[in-house]
């Protein structure tokens, strides 16, 4: 503000209210601290969500794995032709073959087209194989979590010895090439373009 008197003209600047500059500085620090905390918490929340999803899929995989063994007991020690047959024959609920965030269909709706679009697992066992004929069950893969659903480079894998565990994609790839002569990309029918975009493989 300004004023004048007999001695001259005067001007004085003042803050809107006492201590306002200090408060403004504190507010800036608070915002900076909040941004820092968000930067710290977001990766932790993402990791927690990833862990929860992995645990959920391991639980489902264990149920499906048990259903495969039960099917074999009822069918002369033979593995099922696919995972869909487990649903159609009442060995497992349809919701067990998909992720928890998708609405479970009725058993009648579970066909190959549904499984190709919504199925969480990729069945790689040879249909009709006798369980008793497997010479290396601890390394024989029944099925694994389809990579389209993954958040990272680790997937859920079910083995012929009843084990279900998380496995790095590189390690799984080596097992599958040995077991079925195909890589994960070949099994799932996808190939990676140079720009790292997923495109359907040529038939």
Keywords:
single chain; about 200 residues; alpha+beta; two-stranded antiparallel ribbon; 8 strands; disordered C terminus
Which regions have little confidence, pLDDT < 50, spanning 5+ residues? 191-203
Order of helices and strands: EEHHHEEEEHHEE
Using the alpha-carbon principal axes, give the shape: elongated
**Helices and strands: which structural class?**
alpha+beta
Number of helices: 5
**Widest beta sheet: strand line-up:** 3-4-5-6
> Mean pLDDT across all residues, rounded?
80
Please give the largest β-sheet.
4 strands, antiparallel
Count of individual beta strands: 8
**Gyration radius over CA:** 30 Å
- How far apart lie the N and C ends? 81 Å
Share in helix: 40-55%
**β-strand amount:** 15-25%
Can you give a write-up of this model?
The protein has helices at residues 20-74, 84-88, 112-118, 169-180, 184-188, and strands at 2-5, 8-11, 121-123, 141-145, 154-159, 164-168, 190-192, 198-200. Helix content is 41%, strand content 16%. It has 203 residues and is an alpha+beta fold. Strands 3-4-5-6 form a four-stranded antiparallel β-sheet, sandwiched between helices. It has five helices and eight strands, in the order ββαααββββααββ. A hairpin with a 4-residue loop joins strand 5 and strand 6 (164-168). 20% of the residues are buried.
What does the secondary structure layout of this molecule look like, with pairings?
Layout: E1 2-5, E2 8-11, H1 20-74, H2 84-88, H3 112-118, E3 121-123, E4 141-145, E5 154-159, E6 164-168, H4 169-180, H5 184-188, E7 190-192, E8 198-200
Antiparallel strand pairs: 1-2, 3-4, 4-5, 5-6, 7-8
